[in-house]
Each structure stands twice: as structure tokens, then as C-alpha cells.
Amino acid sequence: MTHQIGIIGGDGIGPEVVAEALKAIDAAGVAYTPVVFDLGGTRYLRDGEVLPATDLDAIRRLDAVLLGAVGVPEVTPGVIERGLLLALRFELDLYVNHRPFLAPPSPLNDGVDLVVVRENTEGAYAGEGGFLRRGTPHEVATQGSVNTRFGVERCVRYAFDLARARDRHHLTLVHKTNVLTFAGDLWDRTFRAVAAEHDDVETGYHHVDAACIYLVQDPGRYDVIVTDNLFGDILTDLAGAVSGGIGRAASANLNPDRTGPSLFEPVHGSAPDIAGTGAADPRAAIVSAAMMLEFLGEHDAATRVRDAVAKSEDVVGTTSEIGDAVAERV
Ligand code: IPM
Ligand code: MN
Question: In angstroms, rounded to a whole number, what is the distance separating the alpha carbons of residues 221 and 239?
């Protein structure tokens, strides 16, 4: 079967790392039709379009989307992030952001093998809030966090299923129940209720600030973490930093119900400061592509790409040199 794969290179280093991810997919011999979209800050600066309805409709009909990174410094923060990336997460109902971290022992720690399951459609990202009297001395800005039982439960269930499928069968809820007593209570009760159906999964709870300490000092204590959207955003940059750097951190924005395509992207941003220099590490994008292959049912190809990245752990070089080294090993 030929997969219809949307390609959004985006801005900055995005197109550079996506090109290397496609090399790896080609090396694995997976048949796909690339459907290329010109989207991102560069497009927006040219014609004012962020996510035209025709593009969104076309994306809905695809099997998956591979995205590099979006955002340029010339555009006001939020325009592209909310109008494109978050719009895709919400419109396609990509309610799980699955972010794996895998690294061998290093001077920082004894090795990392954990997955953060980040809720991806609610919380502080939902866009609740607004201004009153903006720009005056009496201005008010609110930005609420939206947490629904439905949204929390479907994310928590995904995390339990994942923990059940992994060796250690351990799941930690990370939140801030001691201060966020409304949202935290909903998360905590939902977590306990779903836990009661999963006797084979051992559970734990950490406040998010403590989890930051543990991720740095002893990441080996984690197997699967499930957490709220904003906490997950912040924790996954930290997890990336302690497991080989953000240039290695991959992610899958999943619609586990498969009512539409899922979207795969490196955790890193467009890094305009290094765009065009060949300094970007494509491995995060390549592992994201492997996750895409896995989700599409191409298990052998996914394993080959992942193994090739693992065998290229110590390769140093430019973006395309690293990409070539991985492709050769696929
Ligand atoms: C991420 C990014 C995004 C987020 C930005 C670009 C909107 O930081 O995927 O982690 O905050 O979710
Ligand atoms: Mn982030």
C-alpha cells in the first residue's frame, strides 16, 4: 500500500531535517506519495496565509504528516504556533503527544528510557481567556486551563495502555495537585479511576517541580509519564536536554482513534540561528519518521530506521552527513 504522506518542511532548519528523514524512509524501501505543503512563517510573510482551508482539507485526507519546524523571528509569537501547529493538533484531534527519550549512559546519568505522554488538545493551550482594557493601566489578561474529564481520560488511558505494553509496567502522573487544586483534582481522580482497571501497571505521582529534579538527577526512575499539555511541553525540553540533546528528541502527535492522520515532528523548533549552516542534527526528525512508519504499520521499516539511528549514535558531521550515515545503515 502506498501511503499518502503530507510533508511540511516549514521554516529554518525544518526543511533541512525533513529532507534527511525522507532519505531514511527511502532507504527503508517504504512506498509513499509525498504531498508537499508550503506552510509556515515564510509562507505567511509572503502572502499572509497561515493554514488555508483547502490545505487543511487536503491534510485531513492523508495517512500521516511529517513536519520539520515552523516559526520565523519576523512574525509575532503565536501567529504561526497557534494558527498552524496548534490548529493542526486541535483540528485533527491529535490528543496524545507521545515523546520518547532513549539515551545510553552518559556523564549526566545512567541512561534514559522513558516516554512522556503529553495531553495535546486542552489545558493552557486551549486558548481560553482574553483581554480587558488592553494597553491601558487597568488592563486584565486571563489565560485559563481547560481540563475535561473526556480529554484527560482518553489521554490517561493511552498512557496506561502504553505502560502495559512496555517492560517495566510503570506509569507516573505528573501535575501540581498541591496548587492547581481544580485541574489537579480532576487529573488525579481520573488517573486513579483508570488505574483501578490496570492492576498490572504500577503507578506513582510526582509534582511537576519535583519531577524536574528527578529528570536531571535520576531519570532512570521513570518509565512512562502522563501529564498536562503545558507541563508536558516544558518537561520534554528538559527530558531532551538530559538524553542526548534536543536534536535527538522525537515526537508523535497522535489521533489514536485514527479518525484522521497523525502528525510526526521533532520536538525542537526552527532554530533560525543555525538554518543553512548544516549544524542541525536530523536524528530527531529521523526518529519521528520512524514513529510515523510504526504508526502506519510499517514495523520492519520502522525498526530498521530506529536501529540505524542507534548505530549512528556517535556520528558527527553536517546535517546531510549525519542523514547519509543513518540512511546507509538502514
Ligand atoms: C512543542 C513546541 C510547541 C508547543 C510550540 C511551537 C507551539 O514547543 O511542540 O513542544 O508549545 O507545543
Ligand atoms: Mn515545546
Answer: 13
By C-alpha distance, which of 276, 265, 271 is closest to 21?
265
Q: Nearest-CA neighbor of 312 among 328, 326, 327, 291? A: 326
Q: What is the pLDDT of residues 171-183, one digit of tens each?
A: 999 999 999 999 9
pLDDT tens, 223-271?
999 999 999 999 999 999 999 998 899 999 999 999 999 999 999 999 9
CA of 231 to the centre of ligand 2 (A): 10
What's the rounded Cα separation, in Å, for the pair 39 and 202? 43
Indicate whether residue 85 lines ligand 1 (CB < 6 A).
yes
According to DSSP, the β-strands at 129-132 and 140-143 are antiparallel
Q: Is 26 a catalytic residue?
A: no
Ligand 1 and 21: CB distance under 6 A: no
Q: Which residue has the cell 520534554?
A: 236
pTM, rounded to two decimals:
0.97
